[in-house]
Design brief:
Elements: H1 2-16, H2 35-49, H3 53-80, E1 82-88, E2 101-106, H4 111-122, E3 127-131, E4 134-135, E5 152-157, H5 160-169, H6 178-192, H7 219-240, H8 244-258, H9 263-266, H10 271-285, H11 292-310, H12 315-321, H13 328-344, H14 348-365, H15 369-377, H16 382-391, H17 396-433, H18 438-447, H19 452-473, H20 479-487, H21 492-501, H22 506-515, H23 545-555, H24 571-586
Parallel strand pairs: 1-5
Antiparallel strand pairs: 1-2, 3-4, 3-5
Helix pairs in contact: 1-3, 2-3, 6-7, 6-23, 7-8, 7-10, 8-10, 10-11, 10-13, 11-13, 13-14, 13-24, 14-24, 15-16, 16-17, 17-18, 18-19, 20-21, 21-22
Length: 592
């Protein structure tokens, strides 16, 4: 980080004085440094940045060499269309942290070809490439996915377990990420469930507000949101295990799914903001903060979203939850990452300003171990103790009352949901006995907010409307065409049904009848509902073993506590605060 900070400051000074290091007298005709002029520049800049002349001289030479290389790369690209890409390698493959790694490639080649070259050159067996927070598809060209000359491409290693899964899956689809696919499929199954199954035997996901109350969301947005939150939970689970490469892959998938939700929805839940923080936290853990532009944009998104969800002075959060102590850990991490990015950009003044806010929050949020022990001796978990103390500004008695109340609220909410789902199951059973399908009954009850009589009226109206539509708009079948099919030996009702399905095309109707061995059932009258002609869909209880395994797999990564994302021990944050203080203390007398 220190090297990036120094270079950022020097680049700012060079820009102010309009000095171009890649031109004479700083670079000669052979692209070598003009030693005397470079030394004089180092002598002049050293006191301005408060560092030793030798350190400034080394940083200036690094900037000059990068600029010369960039110029050569531009010339090469203009003449040959071969682009120069900067590779941000995994930590244990970087070698000298000051050395940058480059790859030359045309942009009209498939990403897989570039992955193979990187793997061979750096001894990496299985990797993913990330550009501006987006995973590059191996089977598409570089230029199709926004890769340009001098793009910075992040290289992520794929874990051994995931690589084994990929190898097994390659016969079906090359380089398919099975972990992501399994996560997506598992949460898709859960997103389709409507809450009408037995709550004791069938898991069910529901979107809730900050108090745990279910939210009404349009079906398509709900599916996207459940997938987004599912990928996010999986990513957070991997972050806890320090598997930051795999975590980032899942978090970026979550970001893609959140993009399919309406802006109004994203502005009303803090999940999206937390995701942005988690992505940048992974960048930090992977030492990939040269993805500066993407990190800066994501932190701004997070701040805007927190503002929208919580209010200007967190007054909305205070109104909903009665306190703001627990959410302050999110702001601590936000300000800490903003401080880090400002430092890397060479803006020490802004970095110190944000770090001061961080230390102030840390002082309030860092908990007394004795108070934690006292609460845990009362039978509360360490998570409950942490969240309770932060919510009550460290007051033990208030925290104990708060935790007890939260437990009671959660239990009452669970009980209400159990009753609601039991009644829903009873309502569905009653409507099915009247001849309606399970799916139609569930949908009608959802529309009627669980009122069985209203649901029955909705189903009757729907059936009558469908009957009228059938009578008014069903196309007449040509008697001549029916005769042709009867001549071929098919049944009249089946022949009429086949002609309707094929828009009166005799040849297609014949093929349909032959393909079904002459068994094409005419659509029955919609006596019970508009979609009762479709076969009854299997209930959740008859899901395949594979689906059940997928659901169990993804549910393992979902925290059973709705405030798990606020339960930060602040150990990692403490380490980064200390690191930032040590770096900023070096140039404290000479801010730039």
């Amino acid at each position: 980080m220190a090297e990036q900070n120094i270079e950022a400051k020097l680049k700012n000074l060079l820009k102010q004085e309009k000095i171009q290091l890649w031109n004479p007298p700083f670079t000669d005709d052979g692209n070598e440094p003009g030693l005397q002029h470079m030394q004089e520049l180092a002598q002049r800049f050293a006191p301005l940045v408060g560092l030793a002349e030798s350190e400034v001289g080394g940083a200036l030479e690094s900037i000059r060499a990068q600029a010369v290389k960039r110029g050569r790369g531009n010339k090469t690209y203009r003449e040959t269309c071969v682009a120069t890409l900067e590779l941000l390698l995994p930590r244990d493959n970087k070698g000298d942290p000051r050395k940058k790694n480059y790859l030359e490639s045309r942009l009209d080649v498939c990403v897989q070809q570039v992955m193979d070259r990187i793997g061979e050159e750096y001894g990496l067996k299985s990797i993913k490439l990330i550009l501006n927070g987006k995973t590059l598809s191996p089977d598409q060209r570089l230029e199709e996915q926004g890769v340009k000359n001098h793009s910075k491409v992040m290289v992520l290693k794929v874990s051994d377990a995931e690589r084994k899964r990929q190898t097994a899956e390659e016969e079906k689809k090359k380089n398919q990420n099975e972990s992501l696919q399994r996560t997506q499929k598992g949460f898709q199954i859960l997103s389709e469930r409507d809450g009408s199954e037995d709550p004791d035997t069938t898991p069910f996901l529901e979107i809730a507000d900050q108090k745990g109350n279910p939210l009404k969301i349009p079906h398509t947005e709900k599916k996207a949101l459940i997938l987004a939150m599912g990928f996010h939970e999986k990513g957070r689970s991997l972050m806890k295990r320090k598997q930051f490469d795999d975590a980032l892959c899942h978090l970026l998938q979550a970001d893609e799914q959140f993009g399919r939700c309406g802006s109004g929805l994203l502005g009303s839940v803090d999940n999206y903001a937390v995701l942005q923080l988690d992505i940048v936290w992974c960048y930090r853990a992977l030492e990939a903060l040269s993805c500066l532009e993407d990190g800066r944009v994501r932190l701004q998104r997070a701040e805007d979203c927190f503002l929208s969800c919580y209010g200007e002075q967190q007054q909305r959060l205070l109104m909903i939850k009665g306190n703001t102590g627990r959410e302050e850990v999110l702001f601590l991490r936000l300000y800490l990452l903003q401080s880090l990015l400002s430092y890397i950009e060479g803006n020490d003044v802004q970095a110190r300003h944000q770090l001061h806010k961080v230390e102030s929050l840390y002082g309030r949020l860092c908990l007394d171990s004795e108070k934690m022990a006292q609460l845990m001796s009362l039978g509360f978990s360490d998570r409950e103790a942490r969240l309770g103390l932060r919510a009550c500004q460290g007051d033990i008695q208030e925290a104990a009352i708060h935790i007890t109340n939260r437990r009671q609220e959660r239990e009452e909410l669970k009980q209400r949901e159990r009753v609601k789902r039991r009644r829903r199951m009873e309502g569905i059973s009653a409507l099915r006995e009247l001849g309606f399908s399970r799916r139609d009954a569930a949908r009608a009850l959802h529309q009627a907010d669980g009122d069985g009589d209203r649901a029955y009226a909705i189903l009757l109206d729907s059936a009558q409307a469908a009957q009228a539509t059938n009578n008014n708009t069903e196309p007449a079948v040509s008697p001549e065409k029916v005769e042709q099919l009867l001549y071929l030996g098919f049944d009249q009702a089946e022949s009429e049904a086949a002609l309707r399905l094929t828009d009166g095309d005799v040849q297609s109707a014949t093929q349909l009848l032959l393909g079904g061995q002459g068994l094409v059932s005419p659509p029955p009258l919609p006596s019970s509902s508009s979609s009762s002609s479709s076969p009854e869909e299997p209930s959740t209880s008859s899901e395949s073993t594979e689906d059940s395994e997928l659901v169990s797999e993804v549910l393992e990564d979902i925290s059973r506590h709705e405030e798990d994302y606020l339960d930060l021990t602040l150990d990692e944050e403490s380490e980064l605060i200390a690191t930032m203080k040590s770096y900023l203390s070096r140039g404290s007398a000479h801010p730039v």
